[in-house]
Write a structure and sequence with these properties.
Helices cover 33% and strands 25% of the residues. The chain has 10 helices and 13 strands. The chain has helices spanning 19-22, 30-37, 50-65, 89-97, 113-127, 150-153, 212-234, 251-261, 272-275, 282-292, and strands spanning 2-11, 15-18, 41-44, 74-78, 103-107, 132-140, 158-168, 173-179, 187-188, 209-210, 243-246, 301-308, 312-319. It binds coenzyme A. Coenzyme A is lined by residues 28, 32-33, 36-37, 111, 150-151, 154, 187, 210, 212-213, 215-216, 249-250, 277, 308.
Length: 320
């Protein structure tokens, strides 16, 4: 038993911010950002929230899937930027869309989040404990960004992507996933410290910090290895794959992965120029984009891969 994707949707904030606009408040340029990253603009939340964008993307995905909210029995949101510590974004979405029969929870696995929740849903399908799952990757990273730090503020954006999955034993999916917490501080945002009547800590709310080169090296080494492992598990080769849907962090990372796999770069769709790095939302927004453009079609065999905070990674080989 595995699953197939029967509907997708996405939602981004109304405000798009260009590289030139960012260059008005930090020492950077459109040339530096676009050449080093491939990013030209990103959407930034003004009124929008993680749960609000999630619910909007979810409604579009359910409409396309022709599935009612009551039919959803599993609802998972991958996010590092839920609007509240609790309740979870998933429970907020459940209430907003009326998915009254769904078990609902969040997963924090950085930019790998959507791949991780696909694997979790696959486990539910295989166990026979879910028939229709609503998976969402959603972020408002802009609220955790230090807008004075040019090494990070040029990279990240906000948005949400959703997919409705249905149990289907005619499809195959193989994963290769992992984590290395010992390298986790390469990309972090601290929470509040302990603070109570017995311990007093002075603190300010933290922002995203990143050792960009360490994350870059991690990605270009780990992602091709995970993809090769997933291909081997699936018993297929790079040539059998129609599309490689990779987390959109940096175009140079994607080019390096394509080169290492000896796969044509044309098979790696790129959307980071318009979205920036939207972490857990990146892969589902890319899937939705490719569905809408007619590039992702039934019976294709694709690779999906994510990497990011944790450090975490995952690659999947699946039939559409
Ligand atoms: N504008 C202009 N200059 C900038 C800049 C910016 N926005 N950000 C950094 N620089 C400068 C640095 O200060 C440095 O200057 P120096 O040489 O005078 O010290 C120079 O550019 C080169 O910096 P470096 O960090 O070596 O650049 P890079 O080629 O490694 O690119 C990243 C930086 C962040 C784009 C790149 O490392 C990267 O993409 N890493 C992976 C990040 C990622 O994917 N994170 C999310 C994972 S999910």
């Amino acid at each position: 038993m595995s699953f197939r994707i029967i509907g997708t949707g996405s939602c981004v904030p109304a405000k798009s911010v260009s590289n030139d606009e960012i260059a008005q408040f930090v020492d950077t340029s459109d040339e530096w950002i676009s050449q080093r990253t491939g990013i030209r603009s990103r959407y930034i939340a003004i009124e929008e929230t993680t749960a609000g964008m999630s619910a909007d993307a979810a409604r579009k995905a359910m409409d396309e899937a022709k599935v009612s909210p009551e039919e959803i029995d599993l609802l998972i949101v991958a996010t590092v930027s839920a609007d509240r510590f609790y309740p979870s974004a998933a429970c907020e979405v459940q209430a907003a869309i009326g998915a009254v029969n769904a078990m609902a929870f969040d997963v924090n696995a950085g930019c790998t989040g959507f791949l991780y929740i696909m694997q979790i849903a696959d486990g539910f399908f295989r166990a026979g404990t879910a028939k229709k799952a609503l998976l969402i990757g959603a972020e408002t990273l802009s609220k955790m960004t230090d807008w004075n730090d040019r090494t990070t503020c040029v990279l990240f954006g906000d948005g949400a992507g959703a997919a409705v999955l249905e149990a289907d034993d005619s499809r195959r999916i193989c994963f290769s996933a992992g984590a290395d917490g010992s390298r986790g501080l390469a990309l972090e945002c601290k929470n509040r410290p302990v603070n109570n009547p017995f311990v007093k800590n002075e603190y300010e709310l933290d922002h995203t910090h990143m050792d960009g080169q360490a994350v870059f090296k991690f990605a270009v080494k780990t992602v091709p290895a995970a993809i090769e492992d997933a291909l081997e598990k699936a018993g297929v080769t790079v040539d059998d794959i129609d599309l490689f849907l990779l987390h959109q962090a940096n175009i140079r990372i994607i080019e390096s992965v394509a080169k290492r796999l000896n796969a044509p770069i044309e098979k790696f769709p790129i959307i980071m120029q318009d979205y920036g790095n939207i972490s857990a939302a990146s892969v589902p927004v890319l899937i939705d984009d490719q569905m809408r453009k007619g590039m992702l079609k039934k019976d294709m065999k694709v690779v999906m891969a994510g990497f990011g905070a944790g450090l975490t990674w995952s690659a999947a080989v699946l039939d559409i």
